[in-house]
Design brief:
There is one protein chain. The protein is mainly alpha-helical. It is built from 13 helices and five strands. It has one domain. A hairpin with a 2-residue loop joins β1 and β2. The protein is globular, with a radius of gyration of 20 Å. The relative contact order is 0.13.
Length: 245
């Protein structure tokens, strides 16, 4: 909410600047207000557009590809969970990464699949599902949409920065993919992932080994920029498993 208020304040200041497109300023203010009350349908529509953009920018594994076949074997029975329908695909890239969108889109990179065994991947998938079910992605989308108001405010200035700022869906998709989760959100998604493992009779210890592997990537890795502190998260889940044994 504070970010949205700051955006609105910035837009008001733009009214006094020369070479300002007042139409774009007004639209920017509309976007910021809409961000506060985005409907579920609007969220899903924005998520679908961002997912389509991301799929076009990456190489999606065809159904016959070994990565796609493996992912299908892992998630075949889990297309619907807790009122959400999930859409799983693999990006054929060496990057160790995975992300989710608010509409149930989940994308897993081949590099992550190479790094982990089946149950470790199931935990990561369950973790990403948790971000969707717990509405974490929806919150990130509201903030990113409010940010689009700031971009339109910049675009209203007739200069080079304005021309760059007119790009919309690509920047929006990038913001969602790279949005950092809070410690509380990570705990909630980890707990959901661990519960997913237990509920389906997978090896819950694989949640620990998956996080330990991610901890070896280093703090500057792109996956850890959005999913921080895997070592500490592994310790917390290990303590939970110890208490329940």
């Amino acid at each position: 909410m504070k970010k949205i208020i700051l955006v609105l304040v910035g837009l008001v200041l733009l009214w006094g600047c020369q070479d300002t497109d007042l139409g774009l300023v007004a639209q920017a203010g509309v976007d910021a207000v809409r961000a506060i009350t985005l409907s579920e349908d609007a969220v899903k529509n924005l998520a679908a557009q961002a997912s389509d953009y991301s799929d076009q920018e990456n190489t999606v594994a065809p159904a016959s590809n070994r990565y796609a076949r493996r992912l299908k074997s892992l998630v075949g029975d889990h297309l619907e969970q807790d009122g959400f329908r999930f859409d799983f695909k693999v990006y054929l890239a060496d990057e160790v990464n995975a992300f989710a969108m608010a509409d149930g889109t989940i994308r897993v990179y081949a590099g992550l699949m190479d790094m982990m065994d089946d149950d470790e991947l199931r935990f990561v998938i369950g973790h990403e599902m948790g971000h969707v079910v717990k509405q974490h992605i929806r919150k990130k989308m509201r903030l990113a949409y409010a940010g689009s108001a700031l971009r339109k405010g910049i675009a209203s200035q007739e200069n080079l920065a304005g021309n760059i700022a007119r790009s919309s869906i690509g920047g929006f998709a990038e913001k969602i993919v790279n949005a950092q989760f809070s410690q509380q959100e990570e705990r909630e998604a980890d707990d959901y992932g661990l519960g997913f493992m237990k509920k389906n009779d997978y090896q819950p210890e694989s949640a620990i080994s998956a996080l330990r592997k991610l901890a070896t990537l280093g703090n500057n890795h792109s996956f850890l920029s959005s999913h921080p502190a895997p070592g500490q998260r592994a310790d917390r889940l290990q303590e939970q498993l110890n208490q329940s044994s």
